[in-house]
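Collaboration report, partner site 2.

Our partner group contributed sequences for two proteins of shared interest, and the home lab folded both. The records are reproduced in the order in which they were received, starting with the first partner submission.
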Amino acid sequence: MNDNRKRIAIELYLAQNILVTNYSENWEMTSTSKEFISKGQLIYWSRKVINQYITLKKDHFGEEGKWNADSYINTIEYIPQQFINGGVINDSKKTMKFRKSLENNKWNKSAFKLIIQLLMEELHKKNLLRSKIAQETINYNQEVRAQYNKLNRYIRGYKNITAKKIKEIVESITKDRSVKYFIRRCNDTIKGPESEISYLERYKDDIESTFYNNNMLLRKQKNIFEYVS
């Protein structure tokens, strides 16, 4: 039970510190950084490998198939390793571009956050997360993302969209959605002697230490290139 409390706390910590509405919010590279793997390419590769990971890495999942979040550092190493070892990148030029990207700290940290978000979204889609607040956060982000996409479609669809129409759409996005209200509303739905917030408070120092000591994709980057000619 204690392990599961920590796993819930990890999911909640990642939800609060990684998840964003727009993937670009965590992507520090500029659009002109063409010498590195692009955000779109990384998303495509990651989604492919994440589905393989969920199917193959059964030892990372516990009772009822729920994800063991305390394995997330190993997961975030496994995914980019599979880009090379799993044949996702089968082009020598892209392999070298990926190697160069990993060597850039800004790209690496951006990719780390993006892959965690994609992983958590896919785990949520398959009902494999333990934390109710993490699940609610993902639902919220997806809801807001849909509204922003709706706004973009409106703007593209009108040559002279009125300020009033933009105001109406923006208000529909932001109404009753302050962060404090949102977290309190989620936490109030949790039943039991201890809330998820208390789990996070208990384990936060340990989680934070692990997170900031491993906030890049690979600790031993050369390993995945050993068998690449």
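Second partner submission, folded after the first:
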Amino acid sequence: MEDILRSVVAVPGVSDCIVLDEEGNIVDCVLTQRSRDYTLSVVGYTTAHILAGLRMARRKKVGTVDLQFRDGRVVVRPLRQGHLCMVCQGRVSLPLLNLTVDVALPKLNAAMEQRNARQRLAPPPTETEETGSDENLAASSSHDIGRFLRPFGT
């Protein structure tokens, strides 16, 4: 999947490319800029909710979403089981981007289906794998809280 995303990032003006599942979780990404995990999680969560709201309001499938900002744009294209988000400069060539993405979408859809099939075939985690020991749980919780608070300057 990463090779497919690299072909999209190769378009002049595209800086980051992220594949999200239906819930907004990051499946894979290719980043050319330094991005924080927290920022990407927020982008994924927000994108999933925006698209769900648009689907409900329009009551049909949502196509390309182009969010324009002062210094750039975020282009979101639907996949069968998720979304492809591309962070671009404001002056990116949309025809070239669309041609590249139209070639990449079938490959990404196939990769997502393979990923979901592997997850369905994987055995469910046991109770000890889910919770782990108390020491591991405490360590991972403090690490997660630190990752969450870092963007806020603490």
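Feedback sent to the partner group on the second submission included the following. The two ends are 35 Å apart (CA to CA). The CA atoms of residues 80 and 110 lie 9 Å apart.
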